[in-house]
């Protein structure tokens, strides 16, 4: 029902949306999952035309991809290295018969960005430098990985053509190349919208 509401433009509270997740996952939603309102704004900015291919870098349990898929006419791909969150995202989108979503179980440094048109980044690498706030112990977290992953994303984004759109949420901008121009910010710069010049 929540996806039908979103499809019709009816506002949904995050607590209501997050009920789609198991009890053990919900506590991480506030810190690690994009708020519904922000996800809608980001998705609508990223999808410029039907079929726009959006990559969610560190998709977790798929919240942004699911919201984007029902609020726009783009195709959303989420890449997530944690097996349990990847599998949960697939389970939920199949249960709700959602379309225009692909989930990939991989590390971001295995992904070629040239297959996509636009990018969403809710700082998935931050737990490598603020380890007390990490999601769990299923993947390695260390300071060097923050730099490695951020540099990989930055280099990939820099190779994209002019006009490529990017949205960052709670980011220090370490992954944003100088070739991207800041178009606008929302909610005291928590969410930033970029375009490659």
Put simply, the count of helices is 7
Roughly how much helix do the residues carry, as a percent range? 25-40%
- Order of strands side by side in the largest beta sheet? 3-2-1-4-5-7-6
Structural class: alpha/beta
What is the beta-strand fraction? 15-25%
The CATH superfamily turns out to be: Vaccinia Virus protein VP39
Poorly predicted runs are: none
| CATH fold-level assignment | Rossmann fold
End-to-end C-alpha gap:
40 Å
Largest sheet: 7 strands, mixed
Question: Count of DSSP E strands?
Answer: 7
Q: Class in CATH?
A: Alpha Beta
Principal-axis shape: globular
Q: H/E series, N to C? A: HHHHEHEHEEHEEE
Rg over C-alpha atoms, rounded to the nearest angstrom? 16 Å
